[in-house]
Amino acid sequence: MAQTPQQRRANEKYAKQEAAKRGKPATIVKQKQKPKTPISTGWIVLLAFIVCGGVLFELLRVVPEIWSVVASSFGRWLG
């Protein structure tokens, strides 16, 4: 049995009232969620220090040796 125009208006009115009771539709309320990383920032910093810290300490050890070689060769070249 098909709806009569009177029933259709009554159904639309009821749907509007129910929507007003519930608040805004989920499509409007839905917000973007920030993706959560599987590990915390502290662990990432620690891992970066472990990986890059060795390189940093090695450069601090090697740079004075390289500097002394460059300075001595430059001194020989000038003098």
UniProtKB/TrEMBL annotation:
Indicate yes or no for the key word Transmembrane.
yes
- The membrane-spanning stretches of this chain are 40-60
Q: Give a yes or no for keyword Membrane in this entry.
A: yes
Give me the ranges of the annotated region Disordered: 1-33
Q: How does it sit in the membrane?
A: Single-pass membrane protein
Record's compositionally biased regions (Basic and acidic residues) = 9-21
Which InterPro entries does its entry note?
ER_stress-assoc
Q: Where in the cell is it found?
A: Membrane; Endoplasmic reticulum membrane
Q: Which keywords does the record carry?
A: Endoplasmic reticulum, Membrane, Transmembrane, Transmembrane helix
Q: Which family does it belong to?
A: Belongs to the RAMP4 family.
Q: What does this protein do?
A: Interacts with target proteins during translocation into the lumen of the endoplasmic reticulum. Protects unfolded target proteins against degradation and facilitate correct glycosylation.
The protein in question is named Stress-associated endoplasmic reticulum protein
